[in-house]
Amino acid sequence: MTAELRDVPAPAKINLFLHVVGRRPDGYHLLQTAFRFIDLQDTLHFRARPDGRIVRAYDLPGVPEDADLVVRAARALRQATGCGQGAEIGLEKRIPAGGGLGGGSSDAATVLLALNRLWGTGLSRHELMRLALPLGADVPVFVFGRNAFAEGVGEELTAIDLPQRWYVVVQPDASVPTADVFRAPELTRDTPRVKIADFPRGTFDPYGNSYRNDLENVVFARFSEVGRISAVLAQALGGARVRMSGSGACLFVECDTKAQADGAVDRIAATMQVQPSGLPALRVNLACAGLDAHPLLDWAA
């Protein structure tokens, strides 16, 4: 019988805040952020192949195989371990592209975790995280498996405990290229650092008014539809604080309960129906639960 793993989750993340605190000589930006996993997720399926080939079960429109993070992650694990096995990988996408929710990064991390198990390559979590970083700055946190305070380029991770929250996640009809945002000359790159050590364990609060997303001003100026939808959400939800995740285009609003989040989704939908025709449509408007940990946390030690 062919070894396989089916229905393996790859959850999305949101950035509860994102500060750009500097820039390295090689051009990479130094960040501080808090990652939270949410229950919006892609699903992957894996079937081992004895011929050593890494193949996709079906194409991902607009993404060539050699550029696909799923394929690149599998090849990286095979090369690092000398494993002679291959894999057929199927990906069911639900996390929107260009939204700042880390979908591609999460998919890559799930590939590393799942094939490490399927192939029996036996790498530790730390070893998998080292393979993850060259694939993208957000990939290591998904292998790390815990909500995290992140520094460096996003790879210096400290687990944090966060209260249960629900999030209304909204994406206007826009995709934001991350590289363009970070290249913008007007981007703030000297936000003062915060120290997680200044907070007693268990009381780290990234929701306060002193935290923000430094990328918002650039995105709102260059992709006006994102800023316009942010203003509509704030008005529809009675002045609620609207935040952007990562480099956008997804926006989110924090809620205490599922009922509050579901009600906010309904109010947003109703508001959009009566807005002027020139306002961009919404690709996504849904309620998501914050997760305490990655669903594959116990797949690596």
Automatic annotation (TrEMBL):
Organism the protein comes from: Pigmentiphaga daeguensis
Gene: ispE
Enzyme class (EC, first level): transferase
EC number annotated for this UniProt entry: 2.7.1.148
ATP-binding among keywords: yes
Recorded family membership: Belongs to the GHMP kinase family. IspE subfamily.
Occurrences of domain GHMP kinase C-terminal (ranges): 210-272
Catalysed reactions, as listed in the record: 4-CDP-2-C-methyl-D-erythritol + ATP = 4-CDP-2-C-methyl-D-erythritol 2-phosphate + ADP + H(+)
Domain GHMP kinase N-terminal: 69-146
Entry GO MF terms: kinase activity
Family annotation (Pfam families): GHMP_kinases_C, GHMP_kinases_N
Active site: 13, 138
Classification lineage: Bacteria, Pseudomonadati, Pseudomonadota, Betaproteobacteria, Burkholderiales
Protein name, as recorded: 4-diphosphocytidyl-2-C-methyl-D-erythritol kinase
Pathway connected to this protein: Isoprenoid biosynthesis; isopentenyl diphosphate biosynthesis via DXP pathway; isopentenyl diphosphate from 1-deoxy-D-xylulose 5-phosphate: step 3/6
